[in-house]
Specification:
alpha/beta, 3 strands, about 100 residues, three-stranded parallel sheet
């Protein structure tokens, strides 16, 4: 099985993270990544953090790639782990709003 990542010239995931944070006026930013193609986004989130924005970096760990684990605030087991974390996060936020 092959996978291809398509990118516009001059744009990477870091550029997209910065643009989203600015355009949305984000009060916080969570990014989940799973491979080296996410390094630019991790760097962009780190920059947002240094500017005072609340951020969370999540690594969707796998046997194939572990580089992001050392950079992440939270390491979960693959895509299912990301979904479980997001569901729990949503439940926690919802409970606090009540």
């Amino acid at each position: 099985m092959s996978f291809f990542e398509v990118r516009a010239a001059g744009v990477d995931k870091g550029t997209t993270v910065r643009a989203l944070a600015t355009e949305l006026g984000a009060g916080g930013f969570l990014f989940a990544g799973d491979d080296l193609g996410d390094l630019e986004a991790y760097d962009a989130v780190a920059e947002l953090r240094a500017q005072g924005l609340a951020t969370v970096l999540v690594c969707s760990a796998s046997d194939e790639e572990s580089t992001l684990s050392a950079m992440a605030d939270l390491v979960v087991s693959g895509p299912d782990g990301v979904l479980t974390m997001l569901r729990q996060f949503t439940a926690d936020v919802t409970a606090r709003q009540r």
